Batch of 2 targets.
Target 1
Amino acid sequence: MTQPTLPPPNQEELARLAEPLRALERRVAEVVVGQSTMIRGLLVGMLCNGHVLLEGVPGLAKTLTVSTLAAGLDCTFKRIQFTPDLLPADLVGTLVYSPRDGTFSPRRGPVFANIVLADEVNRAPAKVQSALLEAMQERQVTIGDETYALPDPFLVLATQNPIEQEGTYPLPEAQVDRFLLKLRVTYPTRAEERAVLDRMAFTRPTALDSRLKEPVLHPRELLAARATVDRVHIDEKVREYIVDLVRATRPEPDRRAGAAESLVDFGASPRATIALALASRAVAMLEGRAFVTPHDVKSVAPDVLRHRVIPSYEAEARELTSDDLVAQILQRVAAP
């Protein structure tokens, strides 16, 4: 059953709803030098009600960016350090026995927050990942025999280190697929790194001043902006382009884009098609447009697809990564 088509927002409405988001983006940029791609990706995830996985070596301001983002959004924020000895109860909570009346009462865990930073998410064992998966997909958790809804908005921002494998657990593909975006956090430019040196190279702890702790975006404004994302127009040709891109990631003989079946073991699912459309709408809204262009799709496609394309053994033998395969697909599939 197709949902009714809503009229696109006018320019005045779009500017009014997008301004607090851009103010939040500027606020984070005041604290974090560079990393504009990561900041924009986090905003896209917030707008799309989707979780974001940040991958980068230590020291690239991933945690600082997330904590600054949460400070600018008037909401609850919890940071959970994932370790091999973490238990599901440490994440979602547990039942506490009261000897006085002989009953059990729930004690809610840190996952009951609007923004949850899952730091080094790939260090936790399978049972913890399973509990996190329920929270991410269903927006609820189970404690004992009861199910409890998580607050709205609810966003998991997870980090992982791509180079250190000792003491880590590979994330299940089903869980990785639940992340709307996977952002690769890269090294800053030379000029940005010099600015980091001038700003941060002090013995005293670096902390946000009181001005930067004032929220600039209320959750109700975020929810209103999310509703507007659904109204951003996607032309039929752009919709076809999105479908062609996602189908081009799959090793299927009937693909319109033709391709390298031998280089891909598994491609993106229809969840990626939905994610690419939503993320493209969010990018258009942040740019102040009520319609999606092919450039919007191209700009966000690597973040949507890189963790959903599994290279084959032959691709790995050629030293081709999922990013390389997605780049080839973007070159091969004709944009409208």
Target 2
Amino acid sequence: MDVLHRVLLAGLLPHDEIRHLTVREGQFHRVVLGSDRVVRLPRTPAAAARLPGHAAVLRALSRLDLGFGIPEPLAEGEEHLVLSRIPGVPLDDVLFDEESVAIQYTALLDALAQAGGDEEIRAALPHSSPDHWRHFASDVRAELFPLMSPHGRLRAEQELQALDGLPHLTDAVVHGDLGPENVLWETRDGLPRLTGVVDWDEAALGDPAEDLAAIGAGHGPDLLNRIRALGGWTSTAVTDRIAAVQGTFALQQALAALQDGDDEELADGLTGYR
């Protein structure tokens, strides 16, 4: 960490010793974990420009009682966002009990679905555009195809064609990046208890299949199928939507990295297409 960041963090996290802080590198931000606060430092100018919008979404969501913790914005600057720290760790680090985890994930998704009917939330969050996937496919073809091998372009084309039949849904709040690293847990009485969800940068009103797809990609099909059974998301239509969205994850990463100028994440996202 450079000297300027150290000076900044010393002011933002006055109760913590800089040398003891935990730093995590995300696709768009460097996240510094203090004892009771988290500082997000954007990695690119584009990520910095999005900070005010992210703070507005968090303020809107934090007024709801969703049954789990959401970071609260505490201070904002042009190059940083300070948030309250949600206790807990990703599920890999706590005792895994599939039934308990499935029940709590189902409750999480149910809460987000109900939040999608809140008028203030609907006013604060972006709505998924009817042309979202069409624009995504067009951008991938224009910007990423030149970086792919012929075999990679064929694979990507098949994945993009699966998006053509996706319906336009905006009834639920969709986290948009509900991977295991963004869902925090504690162990209580020998069982995992969901404490909070972080990194709401991609939150929007959209299709819950996107969050189900992320859960499946992060935890595997067995847990996903149990969640789907508990929540009633078992139709063939939901299955097809989940599969279509999962097929785009690497392309989403690569396109966002290219547009943000992040060469490392771009290379990682294109690994299977070169």
